[in-house]
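Recall that a protein's primary structure is simply its ordered list of amino acids. Everything else, from secondary elements to tertiary packing, is in principle encoded there. The following example makes that idea concrete.
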Amino acid sequence: MLQPILMTAVEPALWMNSGGPMSRTRTERIRSSLLGRDDGPVRCPRRLTLALDFGRRDPRTVVTKLLAQRRLSDPEELRLLYVDIPGPMLCRADETVRPRVVSASEPDYVLRDAFLLGLCTSVFYDPSRPVLWTNASLTRRLELFETTGFYA
């Protein structure tokens, strides 16, 4: 006949047998990414980079003024101007992306980039989400990758 086993509380730190003496353990750092690959069965080609340089000016104030110059009152109205926006993509923050200098750029290019940045989180671009302009979203430097050849 089977006897019941009483469970006791386990200490938070546990040491496990790795199958060999401690002298045979090692640490390896594996760095790899599917992002940026344009070949193979899993493809995630880079399609777009987004970054704006506002200098010392407040990003939200700048884009709100540009919006008013176009006689628009809400960032959502940019959907009527920029109808050719791409579908959903993955995002990756990349500080090496060269930003568009707002003070030296055409307002329409700045508004389009701000519009797209407002549709991004730090990891995903979704054209169906609301346009959210925060200092964080407007100052991100992002690479956007198309998810081709696989699904999740």
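The mean pLDDT is 84. Strands lie at 46-50, 52-53, 89-93, 100-101, 124-125, 142-145.
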